[in-house]
Amino acid sequence: MRPKCLFISVLAALGLLVGQASNTSALGQAEMQTDPWIIDTDMDLDDWLALLLALGHSRADIRAVSVVGDGGNRCPDAALSALAIVELAGEGRHIPVACGEGFPVDGFHSMPTAWRDESNSANFDALPAASGTLAPVDAVDLVTQTLRDSDQPISILSLAPLSNLARVFDQAPDVIPMVREIVIMGGAVHASGNVAVPGFPNLPPNYGAEWNVFLDPVAAAAVFTSGIPIRLVPIDATRHVPVSDHLTYTILEGIDTPAGRLAAQILEAVGAIPSFYLWDPLAASVALDRDVCDYRMVPLTVNTTTSPEGWSYPGTAADFPQENWRGEPRRHFDAATSGATEIDPDHGTWVVMCAWPNVVAFTDSLRHSLSNE
Questions:
Q1: Which of helix, strand or coil describes residue 349?
Q2: How many CA atoms lie within 13 A of 135 on its CB side?
Q3: Residue 77 belongs to what H/E stretch?
Q4: Are the beta carbons of 369 and 52 closer than 8 angstroms?
Q5: 96, pLDDT greater than 50
Q6: 170-227 pLDDT tens trace
Q7: What is the DSSP string of 187-256?
Q8: Which residues pair with residue 302 across a beta bridge?
Q9: Which SS3 state, helix, strand or coil, does residue 8 take?
């Protein structure tokens, strides 16, 4: 493990450690205006809002959108939804969108079919169908190519299982130095996870994991140990932004733009879903407006405990290749413990964790993007 003081110094030099002394200077503001980003998303409904926030943000230069196929939605429909949002909110910018594999790098974890069907069939009047086409490469090649073609390091916003990114860094380790940082919506550090849900008996009894990490724990472990600086927005932080009538009104009041009208329809839809939080919009806001959060340093590992039988959602395991990303037999992971992000001072990777979000600053960030301000 690297000494904590050295790691903090490195992060401070990169401008990644922000806390009470993080008031951004005029120079820092100018630098962030040209900060390029890649967004890696699974296009669940909260991702739609996160994408609207990022595309409308005045300091975000979105270079590519890579879609993960093993998360809350399925390709190619998920990627076509992303492309339509890019066309709606991207102000004429050409931002390539591509799909990734439909399964994790290892294991048989999958979201419930009904949840994925609901996201996959989402249809809103405020979002016209995409008129363009997807990139002629898959998501892994798109991310790799975007990093290699850049004349400066690029930050990555991860709103999904880390399957795409793990494959990129495994197949093209030469691009790792081109990643400035990864902002990850994922994990549960001090809070309980969200994988075990009352009323869903087919879900595993896992109370420590968050879905993005649980769906592909091996990929998450690979990204955490890649050496790339990480800012983490865990369940702990997102518990402060549940969807409510008050929050929805605060976000949308007085906004009448194409992005605002789509956001209104999305918020109405998710408002009917119990215990729905603005997980990914908060992560997008934290990524682009660093002072939205109070941060802490934590040393984390990802639990990848295997099991003879493991767990998979009924009816999905047969769709997975029998070999993992190493060409070895695909393994099963322990249903109750795998995917948990665990504090480990001796072996963990020190990450910058969003410990306490400023909800007012977050809603202001989303409002500015939806208003095209």
A1: strand
A2: 23
A3: helix 77-89
A4: yes
A5: yes
A6: 999 999 999 999 999 999 999 999 999 887 778 899 999 999 999 999 999 999 999 9
A7: --SSS--SSS-TT-TTS---SSB-HHHHH-HHHHHHHHTSS--EEEE-HHHHTT-B--HHHHHHHHTT--
A8: 341
A9: helix
Distance CA(99)–CA(78), nearest Å, equals 8
Q: Is the dihedral of CA 205, 211, 215, 216 positive or negative?
A: negative
Residue 19: band (very low, low, confident or very high) from pLDDT cuts 50, 70, 90: very low
| Most confident by average pLDDT, 86-95, 238-247, 266-275 | 238-247
CA 110 to chain CA centroid, Å, is: 16
What does pTM read for this prediction?
A: 0.90
Amino acid identity of residue 102, one-letter, is G
List the structure tokens of 50.
Answer: 């996160």
Tokens of 240: 């402060």
Name residue 32's amino acid.
M
Higher pLDDT, 152 or 118: 152
Please give the mean pLDDT across all residues of the chain.
Answer: 89
d(CA 264, CA 127) in angstroms, rounded, equals 11
Q: Greatest CA separation found in the chain? A: 56
Instruction: Tell me the C-alpha distance between 224 and 243, whole Å.
Output: 29
Closest CA to 232 of 158, 148, 326, 140: 158
Tokens at 261, concatenated: 């009208």
Length reported for the chain: 373
Read off the pLDDT band of 70 (50, 70, 90): confident
**Residue where the block lists tokens 């984390």:** 300
CB–CB of 150/37 below 8 Å?
Answer: no
